[in-house]
Design a protein that fits this description.
alpha+beta, Arc Repressor Mutant, subunit A, 2 domains, disordered N terminus
Length: 266
């Protein structure tokens, strides 16, 4: 094994990849920021990685708000050669997904347990990523805290690695307060969904709750929201999943927009 120095860190690479001579490889600020984003979100689809790379200064032709396919492929190949990421195919003809190895997590400064996400999680992870990108475009000053970060914090506090059912898909910290974010893609039992919405609305840590719903789940979540006490109902906002290149974003709850404060809205 040869050693390669990356931003002051020593990383070992297979000799077949680097030859016999030691070479210096410098990870850029963009590299580290994108690696950290991937690690926080657990897994990120390749086309989303291209959009993340385009947000930062660096090599590669940018078109339509994302890095070119060839430049993104070069970046992926370089990260895989460093042992920082792994990649798996997505469903059918969709792009693949990247996630961080233990080495990648270390380079990104993330104290998470390495994991290989199940194929069944990719769709949910994709839409959580889309929601994060969308919120960042609307509220760039806000801080996103991913479910993985929340679960890691919970595990450290409780000294155990069990999952907590009350952890939302993300939190968004704003000047007005903390927003709980849920991405709802599959139908839950109605009674369970009502309990969850009531619990979220009653949680004093959140000043509002944003539900991003698929067309299949929107009606069910809307009905569950109607079962929340009226004094807490306005705390729950329901939105369609964000669509790329959508010129105008519409709140599903058009009839209640005027009654809610502007800080509750996207």
């Amino acid at each position: 094994m040869d050693e390669t120095e990356i931003s002051g860190k020593i990383v070992e690479l297979p000799a077949a990849q680097v030859g016999r001579s030691k070479r210096q490889v410098q990870l850029t600020k963009r590299d580290l920021q994108v690696l950290r984003w991937i690690g926080e979100q657990t897994a990120v689809r390749v086309d989303q990685v291209a959009r993340l790379l385009a947000q930062q200064a660096g090599p590669g032709i940018q078109t339509s708000g994302q890095l070119s396919e060839s430049a993104t492929r070069v970046w992926r190949t370089r990260m895989k050669a460093l042992g920082a990421v792994k990649e798996a195919r997505g469903f059918h003809n969709e792009p693949g997904y990247l996630w961080l190895t233990g080495k990648g997590l270390h380079l990104a400064g993330l104290d998470y347990k390495p994991l290989e996400p199940a194929l069944t999680l990719f769709k949910h992870l994709y839409w959580c990523n889309e929601v994060r990108l969308f919120i960042a475009s609307r509220r760039p000053e806000a801080r996103w805290i991913s479910e993985r970060a929340l679960r890691s914090e919970h595990a450290q506090e409780s000294h155990e690695r069990r999952q907590s059912p009350d952890i939302p898909d993300a939190l968004v910290e704003t000047k007005s307060g903390v927003i709980a974010v849920e991405v709802e893609l599959t139908d839950k039992q109605q009674s369970r969904l009502i309990r969850l919405l009531r619990r979220r609305a009653n949680d004093q840590r959140y000043y509002t709750v944003w539900y991003f719903c698929s067309s299949e789940t929107r009606e069910r979540v809307t009905r569950a929201r109607a079962q929340v006490p009226e004094t807490q109902r306005e705390k729950i906002r329901i939105y369609d999943l964000p669509q790329k290149r959508q010129e105008k974003y519409h709140d599903v709850q058009q009839t209640t927009r005027a009654a809610s404060s502007a800080s509750n809205e996207l």
